[in-house]
Amino acid sequence: MEKRHQESNHLTGAEQENSTTFLTARHSKKGAGSEEYPGLTPEGVELVKEKTKKDILELIENSEPGSVIVFGGATDLIRTKSTTRVSANEIKEVLAGREEEFLILDEADINNLLTDEEKKSASTIIRISEIVAANPDKKIIITFPLAMSEMSMLEKTKGRFAGKPEWKSGGAKETRSPYLTEIMKRNNNDEALVVMDWIRSNGEITSQDEQVLRGPNALEVAKGYVHSLQRLEGVTKKMFSGRPLVIEITAHSWEIDVMVDYLAHNGTVTPEGFEEIAKGTGDKPTIISEFEFSVIKIQDGKGTMTYRGKTYEFDPSLLNN
User: Fold this and answer.
1) What is the domain partition of the chain in residue ranges?
2) What is the pLDDT of residues 147-170, one digit of tens each?
3) pTM of the predicted model, to two decimals?
C-alpha cells in the first residue's frame, strides 16, 4: 500500500458517525509523585494539564456529535494511570458549566453508580451503557484507566505472559533487565539509537563477555499494542453501540514508537521506519516525549495516523493482527 504524508497537527472535520479515534500518549515526567498522582513529578503534572487544555480539549471539541470519549488504557506502572487521571481531571475542570453539551463520569462516579446491595444483582457496565444511551445529544467523557497486559514492561511469572522477555523485573522496583542494561550501555544511553538497535537485533544481543541477552521483540511489541487498541474498541463498541468513539491510552516510549512505525509502514518495523517517524517534520530522530501522542483514526474502512506533523494512511486490518 502506498504511503502518503500530509502536513498536519490535528485531526479536523465533521466525520460520519461510528468512527473510532485512538489517542496513544506517553506518560508524563516520572518521579516519586504525590498521594494524588503517584509516579509523576510536579512538573510532569503541570505538563499534562497544559497539553490537555491545548491539545486534548481541541480533539474532544472537534470530535463528532454524540461521541463517547473513554480515558481507558494504561499499564501496570502507576505513572501511566496517574497521567490519565491528571488529564481527565483537567478536562472535567475545564468543561465545568457545560453540562448541556457534556456528561462526565469519572472513577468516583462510576464506583458509586450502584449501591453495595445493587452490585449483587446489577452490572455497573450495563448502568453506564444505559446512561450513555439516555444522553444521545451529549458527548460523554468516561474515566476508568485499566492496565492492559499487552502493554506491560514488567516480567511476569504467572499467566500466559509468563517467561516472556521484558524490560524490567522486581515489581514496583522496576529493576532493569540485563538486556536493557546492556543495550543502553552500548548505545551511550542515546534512546533513539537504542530503539534502532533494539529493532535491528530482534531483541537479542551479545554482551561484551559473550553472554546472549534477550529482551522483547519489537515487532511483537508493536502487534501487542495494536491488539490492545482493538480489544478496547471491541469492548466500547459493545457498550456504546452506534456512537462515535474516542479512546485514550497512556503507555511507554519505545513501545509506542514501534507501534507508530508498524502502522506507518504497513505492518513492518525497521530501523529506517522508526527513524522516519521519529524525525517527523524535523531533522533529528528522537523517541516520543513525555505526554506526546499519536492520533489514530478508523473511518469509512480507512485508517489514518497523525504523528509529529505528518499523517500516514494504513490498512485498518492491521489492528486485527
Assistant:
1) 20-152+221-320, 168-218
2) 888 888 777 666 666 656 778 876
3) 0.89
- CATH superfamily of the 20-152+221-320 domain: Phosphoglycerate mutase-like (3.40.50.1240)
Q: What is the pLDDT of residues 61-86, one digit of tens each?
A: 999 999 999 999 899 899 999 999 99
Give the 3-state secondary structure of the chain: CCCCCCECCCCCCCCCCCCEEEEEEECCCEEEECCCCEEECHHHHHHHHHHHHHHHHHHHHHCCCCCEEEEEEECCCHHHHHHHHHHHHHHHHHCCCCCCCEEEECHHHHHCCCCCCHHHCCCHHHHHHHHHHCCCCCEEEEEEEEECHHHCCECCCCCCCCCCCCCEECHHHCEECHHHHHHHHCCCCCHHHHHHHHHHCCCEEECCCCCEEECCCHHHHHHHHHHHHHHHHHHHHHHCCCCCEEEEEEECCCHHHHHHHHHHCCCCCCHHHHHHHHHCCCCCCCCCCCCCEEEEEEECCEEEEEECCEEEEECHHHHHC
